[in-house]
Amino acid sequence: MKQIEVVAAVICHNGKFFATQRGYGEFKDFWEFPGGKMEPGETREEALKREIREELDTEISVDTFLTTVEYPYPAFHLTMHCFFCSVRSGHLELKEHENAAWLRLEELDSVDWLPADVEVVKTIKNH
Ligand SMILES: Nc1nc2c([nH]c(=O)n2[C@H]2C[C@H](O)[C@@H](COP(=O)(O)OP(=O)(O)OP(=O)(O)O)O2)c(=O)[nH]1
């Protein structure tokens, strides 16, 4: 089974969490935390900063580790490392996603998350 290792940013500000909606591909229209696949030789933090720069034209600080989720999709096994992050500079411009929202804790269940993210959302709520 193919394995992929992904990093994801749970960007927080004033009690809200930044969620993005996929604009293309197999999981189009599902919501996720921005991020992507790690490249060889990168640390998790480097990969996350690079992905957020590419996807949102924004510099983040990677603040604390939240959780690692393991999820068996039919076509691959996902390992996803999630971190609480904050914006250092930039305006979270959507370069690849079709939509985004700042969600309060009690609004986190209002969007259709990718299957692996349901576990991440539970962890945020219990944090
Ligand atoms: N970024 C991100 N990916 C997620 C989340 N939940 C989840 O199941 N995934 C899955 C969807 C994708 O199969 C994979 C991430 O790949 P990606 O397509 O975002 O990564 P990438 O930008 O490096 O890839 P690519 O399109 O250049 O191939 O992880 C999530 O919250 N954030």
TrEMBL record:
Keywords: DNA damage, DNA repair, DNA replication, Hydrolase, Magnesium, Metal-binding, Mutator protein. SUPFAM superfamilies: Nudix. It holds the Pfam family NUDIX. It catalyses: 8-oxo-dGTP + H2O = 8-oxo-dGMP + diphosphate + H(+); 8-oxo-GTP + H2O = 8-oxo-GMP + diphosphate + H(+). Its EC number is 3.6.1.55. It is an enzyme of class 3 (hydrolase). One of its GO terms (biological process) is DNA replication. One of its GO terms (molecular function) is 8-oxo-GDP phosphatase activity. Residues 2-127 form the Nudix hydrolase domain. It comes from the Bacteria. InterPro entries: MutT-like, Nudix_hydrolase, NUDIX_hydrolase-like_dom_sf, NUDIX_hydrolase_CS, NUDIX_hydrolase_dom. Its cofactor is Mg(2+). Belongs to the Nudix hydrolase family. This is 8-oxo-dGTP diphosphatase. It comes from Phocaeicola barnesiae.
